[in-house]
Amino acid sequence: LCFNDTFSDLKSYLILALSALSNGGPRGFHLFRERKTWSEAQTYCRSHYTDLASVRSKEEKDAIFGKIQFYQNYWIGLSRESWKWSDKSPFLLKKWGPTEGLNTYGSEYCTDPKLIKPSNGGNTNGSAKDSDS
């Protein structure tokens, strides 16, 4: 999914929320349908769950992909401003699919399926670069 200024005020219908136990127990992911901007989705998730979903491992990616329908857009908690998740954890998992991160066409600025919509200070302009560099 690529991003540009046309997404700055986009309201997505699908949001992935994260719930986690404070003692470091299992993390759960919740999909809900609300028309919200990224900032509105983050506020909602922080009020009702823990935060927007962050993906820290292949297992978590697989758990999320098991809940979503491909070729739809989802808000998750990645911030392009600092390339960290909204819960402040680092962005480590960069290979989302079998061909992602291979830099097939010289520069990979997108990921597929349409999962990542990073925020840039509450806006969603810019590109999500999916590479290991």
Structural features, described:
- This is C-type lectin domain-containing protein.
- InterPro entries: C-type_lectin-like, C-type_lectin-like/link_sf, CTDL_fold.
- Pfam families: Lectin_C.
- This protein has 133 residues and is α+β, with helices and mostly antiparallel strands.
- It has one domain (1-97, 107-133).
- The chain has 2 helices and 5 strands.
- The strands form 2 sheets. A 3-stranded antiparallel beta sheet has the order 2-1-3, with helices on one face. Strands 4-5 form a two-stranded antiparallel sheet.
- A hairpin with a 6-residue loop joins strand 1 (12-20) and strand 2 (27-36).
- It is globular, with a radius of gyration of 14 Å.
- The model is unreliable at 1-8 and 100-133 (pLDDT under 50).
